[in-house]
Write a structure and sequence with these properties.
The protein is built from eight helices and seven strands, in the order ββαααβααββαβαβα. It is an alpha+beta fold. The protein is about 65% helix and about 15% strand.
Length: about 290
């Protein structure tokens, strides 16, 4: 949107104009009404004089006053927006910072955990391979440019289907709200290939940036910390497999329930064995007597 001043866009200027006109007109109308009620019995000449004063004085004072108030309100609103942006977004890449990303994803988890028919989601964690080498060999400006390029690829690939955040350093995360294994694998491969191609176009260096991606594909109910741990483990598997690759694990509540059922059966067996052992021991004692 075209800016009409420092920090004020067209909508802000229109709002200030409406505030100025509305406030001035309201004050003028009130002043003239009060003046008429108070001076009507003094005659037409006095009434005309006082009404003209009741009109011009509010107009002369109200226009600059309400314009100033409108400007100050818009400046405060702009400051609040900038503070919110600074608290939620990473200054270099424009992605959500770790705190904002985590809060948004946990909020979605909470809603889906209560949904009768929850969707399948995916959490992707990406890490730039050998990123320190870029900084050491080409400087931190080149490293910053690589991070900005990775963020741009991520945002373009995920789009409105999810959110993208920078976890810190050269590590990013993407959360896709509703997806499946095929679509998630294709998305991860697209990101991996586009990052490598984008950096390759900048000179085809042998140390061009690539990314390793760990993915947790899951259904609800789920706990964010558990899903994050799974995706992080998959990232390290991708790193261990030679980097510049994707590793994905599917995780569902059925797996959790199956594990819980196995644990319950195991505990039941242990308890039964314990009871049998105690009974045999007591029987032996009685027989010994």
């Amino acid at each position: 949107m075209k800016s009409l001043g420092p920090g004020l866009d067209r909508r802000a200027v229109i709002w200030i104009g409406n505030c100025t006109l509305g406030g001035t007109a309201g004050c003028t109308a009130i002043a003239m009404l009060i003046t008429y009620c108070c001076t009507a019995h003094f005659g037409a000449e006095v009434l005309a004089t006082t009404l003209s004063l009741a009109f011009y004085i509010p107009v002369l004072l109200g226009v600059p006053l309400f314009a100033l108030i409108g400007v100050k309100i818009q400046q405060l609103a702009l400051t609040n927006r900038l503070l919110i942006q600074a608290s939620r977004y990473d200054g270099l890449t424009g992605c959500l910072n770790r705190g904002a990303f985590t809060a948004d994803v946990i909020d979605f988890f909470a809603k889906q955990n209560l949904a009768p028919f929850p969707c399948t989601s995916a959490l992707l964690i990406l890490d730039a391979d050998h990123f320190k080498k870029i900084n050491d060999c080409h400087g931190h400006l080149a490293g910053d440019a690589a991070l900005v390029a990775i963020a741009a690829v991520l945002r373009d690939a995920v789009g409105e289907a999810g959110v993208v955040g920078r976890l810190g350093g050269e590590e990013f995360a993407a959360f896709v709200r509703s997806t499946d294994a095929t679509a998630t694998g294709a998305l991860a491969e697209r990101i991996r290939l586009e990052v490598a191609e984008d950096r390759g176009r900048e000179g085809g260096r042998a140390d061009a940036v690539t990314v390793s991606i760990g993915i947790a594909l899951f259904t609800y109910p789920a706990v964010y910390e558990d899903i994050f741990r799974i995706a992080d483990d998959q990232l390290y598997l991708a790193k261990g497999a030679g980097r510049n690759c994707v590793s994905m694990m599917e995780h569902s509540p059925r797996d959790i329930r199956a594990m819980a059922e196995q644990l319950r059966r195991g505990f039941a067996v242990l308890q039964a064995d314990g009871v049998d052992t105690i009974i045999d021991s007591q029987a032996s004692r009685l027989a010994g007597r």
